[in-house]
Amino acid sequence: MNRLISIELQKIWKNKASKVLTLTYFILLSFIALIASIKFDLGIFKFHLAEMGIFNFPYIWHFNSYIAVWFKLFLAIVIVSMMANEYTYGTLKQNLIDGLTKKEFILSKFLTVVILALFSTIFVFVMTIILGLSFSSYTQFDIVFSDLKYLIAFFVNLLGFFSFCLFTGILVKRSAFALGFMLVWFFIEQLIKGFLAFMVFPNSNNDLYFSQFLPLEAISNLLIEPFTRLSVIKTIGNQMGVEGTKDYGVHSLSVLIVLIWTFLFIYFSYKLLKKRDL
User: Fold this and answer.
1) Which of 22, 62, 116, 169 could form a disulfide with 226 if both were Cys (CB 3.0 to 4.6 A apart)?
2) What are phi and psi of 40, to 5 degrees?
3) What is the pLDDT of residues 135-150, one digit of tens each?
């Protein structure tokens, strides 16, 4: 199996477009550190992001995880292309002729997805530790590691989304169409959410309960925006009469829903591959 994973990673690295996108992804992740240098000094108005507490432990785990998760689209393109290229260049058929089973093929792809998600998580972990120790006002051990749940949510978010990308690549076979299908599915979920909110449950919040089971919605629910958690934003909200009641936590039900969808994406990827005449 190690040999299969090595081959999969080589396929990504030897493909020029995939290599550029992967490097771009990690370079952009490292640019989160540049947020600390954002300063505006316009007379009496002074604005310095680092002094607003965004790099304080444990808040920084939430902030960095949320910002980093938006860059996953770069690796999404890599994963979809990785699968589409198997059909385009006939390597899938050749691998099966050489004795690789369809189950082993899907497993090797899934393990590649796990490695990409895991390496991304480790990268964000190291970057967060460096930024936090450099700028945080709190460096006690128990405070530093008190909110690692957001990093776990980041990993599960990537795992679920990349599995969805893998399934889409197998379903549609062509990278451009697969990316288009993902966009269409996003809009379908938005329509379902709108239908639930305005047509089925217009006078209650029950729509939120049912919409959380949609795959992309479940994935996005793992990490709620962290900006309104900042004390300066809360102060402004209170002055305007807006009370913050948002739940910023990482809930076990949300994690479970995404893990179930991850299993289903991989399972149906295998079923699709198994039934197809290659």
Assistant:
1) 62
2) -130, 130
3) 888 889 889 998 999 9
Cβ atoms within 10 Å, residue 237: 13
Q: Are the beta carbons of 62 and 146 closer than 8 angstroms? A: no
Give the pLDDT score at 237: 56
What pTM does this model have?
0.90
Q: What percent of the chain has pLDDT over 90?
A: 46
| Three-class HEC string of the chain | CHHHHHHHHHHHHHCHHHHHHHHHHHHHHHHHHHHHHCEEEECCEEEEHHHHCCCCCCHHHHHHHHHHHCCHHHHHHHHHHHHHHHHHCCHHHHHHHCCCCHHHHHHHHHHHHHHHHHHHHHHHHHHHHHHHHHHCCCCCHHHHCCCCHHHHHHHHHHHHHHHHHHHHHHHHCCHHHHHHHHHHHHHHHHHHHHHHHHHHCCCCCHHHHHHCCCHHHHHHCCCCCCHHHCHHHHHHHHHCCCCCCCCCCCCHHHHHHHHHHHHHHHHHHHHHHHHCCC
Tokens of 153: 């949510």
Report CA dihedral (123, 125, 129, 130) to the nearest 10 degrees: 10
- Please state, in angstroms and as integers, the Cα–Cα distance from residue 219 to each residue in 138, 157, 266, following that order: 31, 5, 16
Closest by alpha carbon to 33, among 5, 81, 68?
Answer: 68
Say which residue, 5 or 168, is predicted with more confidence: 168
Crossing angle for the helix pair 149-172 and 59-69, nearest 10 degrees? 10
pLDDT tens track for 170-190: 998 888 888 999 999 999 999
Residue that the structure tokens 């390496």 belong to: 119
Q: Give 188-200 pLDDT, tens digit per residue.
A: 999 999 888 888 7
